[in-house]
Amino acid sequence: MAEKIIIIGGVAAGPKAACRVKRLLPGAEVTIIDQDSLISYGGCGIPYYVSGDVADEKELRSTSFHMVRDEYFFEKAKGVHALTSTRALAIDRKNKTVDVEDLNTGKVSSLPYDTLMLATGSTPVQLPVPGADSSNVFTISDLHKAVAIKEMIAKGLVSRAVVIGGGAIGVEMAEALSDLWGVETSLIEYMDQLLPGIVDKPMARILEKNLRDNNIDLYLNEAAEQIITENGKGVAVRTAKSTLDTDLIIMAAGIRARSELARDAGLLVGATGGIVVNERMQTSDPDIYAAGDCVEIMHLVSGQKFIAPFGSMANKEGRVAADNMAKIPSTFKGGVGSFIVKAFDVSLGAVGLSLQAARAAGFDAELSLSSPSDRAHFYPGQDIMCIGLVFDRRTRKVLGLQGTGPVTDGLSARIDAAAVALCAGATLDDFSNIEMAYSPPFSPAIDPINAAAYIADNLCDNRMRQLSLEQFYAWMESPATNPERVVLDVRHPNQAEPFVEAFGADFWLSLPYDEVRDRFAELPRDKELVIFCNAGSRSFEVQVFLDHVGYGNNIVLPGGFNVIRRMGADWLPVD
């Protein structure tokens, strides 16, 4: 008798597992159940469909050979039966059945299984805001919502929009609305930075400046308190400080695992809200597996459980679950949270832990900040990347890498390399020696990932002393808080001159890098010198020399002007 395998959930992990297990067990009866009428689509592509980069929603549901992944495709091409518009109501583990409801007819039936897999995904967080049920308030939860949003915009019904939530989806949707359609877009974030908990403030500030430069209005440290309605439609979003008129509201306040079906069946659910699985993607019931956004997995750096809502992870987990359902031993050990997003002409990515997250997890963490070229400095078209490497001073273990750069594959290549190394528990020495393919059109001879590790090595062994950018910005906003500190700018005089004129020669000292050895005696001994250059490398060399000649009251500004210019500040001289 053919083995009956039921998979609940038909977006990413479910279809992957279904097709994989059918290849391994051609005689098995494999059934996908999903409450939606559309299945197996690229949910991560929704912002790009809304923006117009992806012209037709069917492209998100199509294979690389242009077949739409619908019920016919799964039945005829894959041998998998797909029950769409069908809701799983309950799991009877004792009798090994699933109660389902046909949403078109209301008919309830019971389906037997030998092995069951849950791929129920996640659901958007619904903020308890008055007016949130208005007809023009959307979450990015499925393809139907995306189609409805795009239709509203295409019909000319949206001239102003408010996005609530500054995570990845919020940023992508803000860009999508503004870039192609020219919608006047505002983004509200409860925390004091975008992508909170994912990247640290220097990278977040670079992203924020880029969005503002592209006419996105940001409201940080503000929370949506009310959606003002007229005739069932939201016409404004009110915070404690602002009232924003709007035609469209998108809630992107995060996601939570959809684990209610598992919980009701008595399966273990973790503190994250995700279903508890082992490395074989097996739940607390050995005949039930789970994968995708609905499960919690191990963070291979922190050792803590987390939800990883990425299609890439869901596909890996789905394959491992399928292998084990077919009795082929296979394991998924966890992840490191690799992430990358595009916002206009800037890409931002991260993997592992941010500095803030690392310290919260108990690590003796520090940040190495650098701003290298993305290719050989002499090669036409080279640009700057800003790289932050998070490491543990005590163990020298690398905890995370984050960065911004142009929208090329340069940043992605470094994030990907770091992800592999982090999964292996890499140290600073390992990162110093990661071998990256070198050719001037693709990278500098000293790769940015190696350079970041070199800086971290100097910090870890106390050869370099630095002032964080947060501390520098706070001081520049109010220099009187430390009147015994001055800036030593070692860039070319033409680069330093606007700052000298803006702040005065007694506060912003200009002494070119190649003249420091001859003129160091001109520097004040009674002041702390903040050594400032474009990237930080010359600053470190000057620090070493000044220490040698008795001017040890100095500190390096990491990343230098390359990072500061991309972060922006009111106190910066006008270009």
Could you describe the 3D structure shown?
The structure is a single chain. By secondary structure, the protein is an alpha/beta fold. The chain has 17 helices and 30 strands. Helix 6 crosses helix 17 (560-567). The longest helix is centred in the middle third of the chain and has 15 residues, at 311-325. The N and C termini lie far apart (76 Å). The model has no long low-confidence stretch (mean pLDDT 95). Keywords: FAD, Flavoprotein, Oxidoreductase, Redox-active center. This is NADPH-dependent 2,4-dienoyl-CoA reductase, sulfur reductase. Belongs to the class-III pyridine nucleotide-disulfide oxidoreductase family. Pfam families: Pyr_redox_2, Pyr_redox_dim.
Quickly list its features:
five-stranded parallel β-sheet, alpha/beta, redox-active center, FAD/NAD(P)-binding domain, 30 strands
Based on Cα principal axes, name the global outline.
Answer: globular
Instruction: Characterize the main sheet.
Output: 5 strands, parallel
> Unreliable stretches, pLDDT < 50, 5 or more residues?
none
Total DSSP E strands: 30
What is the overall number of helices? 17
Q: How large, in whole angstroms, is the Cα Rg?
A: 27 Å
Domain Rhodanese: 511-573
GO molecular function: oxidoreductase activity
Keywords: FAD, Flavoprotein, Oxidoreductase, Redox-active center
Pfam families: Pyr_redox_2 (PF07992), Pyr_redox_dim (PF02852)
